[in-house]
């Protein structure tokens, strides 16, 4: 247990020390939030869909968490290249604990990053429908963070070098984001797109978040929770398995 | 303390460690010498649970590193050949993290951290991030870290790489003292023959993955009719430079070749 805590703490310390990186990784979400939020608002409103900023904010928060938790994979590759991973793998601690500690750390920092964007969204005019949904929103943020940290860990454990990781990520990240319904409502879209959104894990995270924050979910919260919860367990298990196979 | 029987490790087709056998007694200081790419680090990785053997048997304090890895890990300390610090933590934090991973109680941890940092001349700069350290300081910190949890067996893979004479002297004095006072078993590699000569009880010489000679420094010298250990080493391993000198790229290329050859 101690190992999980200290590895979690390590990730947090490193996170808070990398101010430049924190600011830099806020750039993209802010662009989506402000440019799209304000830019598409008139069209969205004319379509009778309400305020686009309200709609897109949960999507952009989820996106932030997505990017930042997948980043855990890069962190893993770095730790391998800089050798620190060896130090943890040779300690008298089950590998599963090491993996869980790293995952908790990465998921926590991803959530903090998401919260930062939420604060900016609030400043930009985003208002949750009610405060009662906030705990549920947290739960969905956490699930998104855990699911994609697990994906990052899986890819980061399997590939040794940065180029490979980047390549895989290019094939993963953008599709996951654009097919998740983060930017558009899931109603009235073409059949093919509907099918694609249904197999995108982030869809359920974004939908759950949106349901909790602005009471505008496509699926019920229970469906979203079940899908994300199951994925969190399964993918963490896969990540742990890949992590256990790392050879130094 | 360490028993190795017919140990072989292959990377694809390439045999890095070829059927080696030896035993290290409790309380012994054992040096493992060999040219670049001889298989020293690979052997250490197997002994320290980081790499499974391809075949053969290994026992550390009677335990199997593959199947009883956690138990083995409790007993050993390692100073790796390559850096393994967290550059974005301070020296103090690196040590503290290590102590926590090895379940060293907090109070004892603090005391030991202070005395080790003082011993290796890092106490004043303990709160600086490691990335601001010089190469030698990082090396000293790695050594201090390896000693923090008072291991019963200490693996030192070229610990003095990049260290100044003062630090080297300090290190070996301390290692000998640990060995004498606390009976710590030491398994070390180095390319400095004088160090091996000074601290090691017995020396194994490995070349191309095979042990070519094993004995005390005096035995190695007399069996080759050499005046110094360095001469004996060259007599046993030849004077040619090894093409195995393995960088990461080398290893990758070799792995790729092995892969395609399948
Ligand atoms: N993961 C790996 N994949 C492929 N080949 C490897 C791997 N690790 C080591 N080797 C090869 O095994 C051989 C032995 O390497 P090892 O690191 O054990 O040498 P060493 O004796 O420690 O040398 P040095 O004195 O340079 O540290 C080298 O030829 C190296 O290229
Ligand atoms: Mg080596």
Which shape of chain A, going by the Cα principal axes? globular
Low-confidence stretches of chain B: none
Task: Quickly count the domains of chain B.
Answer: 1
- Helix and strand run of chain A: HHHHHHHHHHH
Q: What separation lies between the terminal Cα atoms of chain A?
A: 24 Å
Give a quick account of the main beta sheet of chain B: strands, pairing sense, barrel closure: 6 strands, mixed
Notable characteristics:
heterodimer, A: 248 residues, 80% helix, B: 262 residues, six-stranded mixed β-sheet, three-stranded antiparallel β-sheet, 10 helices, 23% strand, binds adenosine-5'-triphosphate, binds magnesium ion
Question: Can you walk me through this structure?
Answer:
The complex is a heterodimer of chains A (248) and B (262). Chain A is mainly α. Chain A has one domain (2-244). Helices cover 80% and strands 0% of the residues of chain A. Chain A contains 11 helices and no strands. The radius of gyration of chain A is 18 Å and the shape is globular. With 262 residues, chain B is of the alpha/beta class. Chain B has a single domain, classed as Rossmann fold (3-Layer(aba) Sandwich), CATH 3.40.50. Helices cover 42% and strands 23% of the residues of chain B. Chain B has 10 helices and 9 strands. Chain B has helices at 40-47, 69-75, 91-101, 106-119, 135-148, 165-182, 193-199, 217-224, 229-237, 248-260; strands at residues 2-11, 14-24, 29-33, 55-60, 76-79, 153-157, 185-189, 202-207, 210-216. In chain B, the strands form 2 sheets. Chain B has a 6-stranded mixed beta sheet with strand order 5-6-7-3-8-9, with helices on both faces. A 3-stranded antiparallel beta sheet of chain B has the order 2-1-4. In chain B, helix 3 (91-101) packs parallel to helix 5 and helix 8 packs across helix 9. Chain B is globular and about 50 Å long. Chain A binds chain B through residues 2-3, 5-7, 10, 13-14, 17-18, 79, 82-84, 86-94, 247-248, and chain B through 45, 48-51, 70-71, 73-74, 76, 78, 80, 82-89, 93, 96-98, 100-103, 129, 145. The complex binds adenosine-5'-triphosphate and magnesium ion. Magnesium ion binds next to helix 1 of chain B.
């Amino acid at each position: 247990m101690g190992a999980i805590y200290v590895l979690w703490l390590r990730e947090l310390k490193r996170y808070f020390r990398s101010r430049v990186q924190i600011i830099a990784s806020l750039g993209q979400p802010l662009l989506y939030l402000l440019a799209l939020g304000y830019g598409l608002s008139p069209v969205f409103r004319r379509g009778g869909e309400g305020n686009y900023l309200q709609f897109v904010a949960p999507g952009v928060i989820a996106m932030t968490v997505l990017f930042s938790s997948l980043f855990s994979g890069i962190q893993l590759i770095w730790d391998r290249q800089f050798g620190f991973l060896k130090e943890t793998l040779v300690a008298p601690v089950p590998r599963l604990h090491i993996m869980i500690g790293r995952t908790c750390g990465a998921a926590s920092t991803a959530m903090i990053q998401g919260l930062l964007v939420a604060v900016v969204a609030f400043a930009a005019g985003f208002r949750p429908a009610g405060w009662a949904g906030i705990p549920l929103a947290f739960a969905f943020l956490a699930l998104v963070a855990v699911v994609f940290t697990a994906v990052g860990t899986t890819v980061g454990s399997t590939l040794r070098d940065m180029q490979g990781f980047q390549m895989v990520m290019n094939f993963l990240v953008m599709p996951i984001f654009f097919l998740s319904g983060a930017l558009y409502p899931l109603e009235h879209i073409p059949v093919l797109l509907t099918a694609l959104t249904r197999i995108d894990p982030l869809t359920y995270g974004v939908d759950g978040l949106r349901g909790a924050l602005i009471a505008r979910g496509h699926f019920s919260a229970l469906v979203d929770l079940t899908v994300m919860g199951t994925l969190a367990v399964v993918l963490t298990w896969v990540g742990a398995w890949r992590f256990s196979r790392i050879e130094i | 303390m360490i028993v190795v029987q017919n140990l072989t490790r292959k990377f694809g087709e390439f045999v890095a460690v070829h059927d080696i056998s030896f035993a290290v007694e409790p309380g012994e200081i054992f040096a493992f010498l060999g040219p670049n790419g001889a298989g020293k680090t690979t052997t250490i990785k197997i002994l320290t649970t980081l790499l499974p053997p391809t075949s053969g048997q290994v026992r550390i304090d009677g335990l199997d590193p593959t199947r009883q890895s956690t138990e083995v890990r409790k007993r050993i300390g390692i100073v790796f050949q390559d850096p393994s610090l967290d550059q974005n933590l301070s020296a103090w934090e690196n040590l503290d993290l290590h102590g926590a991973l090895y379940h060293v109680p907090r109070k004892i941890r603090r005391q030991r951290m202070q005395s080790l940092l003082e011993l290796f001349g890092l106490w004043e700069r303990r709160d600086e991030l490691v990335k601001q350290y010089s190469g030698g300081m990082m090396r000293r910190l790695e050594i201090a870290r390896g000693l923090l949890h008072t291991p019963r067996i200490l693996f030192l893979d070229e610990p003095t790489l990049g260290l100044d004479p003062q630090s080297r002297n300090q290190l070996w004095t301390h290692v000998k003292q640990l060995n004498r006072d606390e009976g710590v078993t030491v398994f070390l590699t180095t390319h400095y023959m004088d160090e091996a000569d000074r601290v090691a009880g017995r020396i194994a010489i490995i070349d191309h993955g095979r042990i070519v000679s094993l004995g005390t420094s005096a035995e190695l010298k007399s069996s080759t009719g050499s005046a110094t250990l360095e001469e004996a080493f060259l007599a046993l391993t030849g004077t040619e430079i090894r093409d195995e000198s393995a960088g990461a790229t080398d290893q990758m290329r070799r792995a790729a070749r092995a892969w395609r050859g399948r």
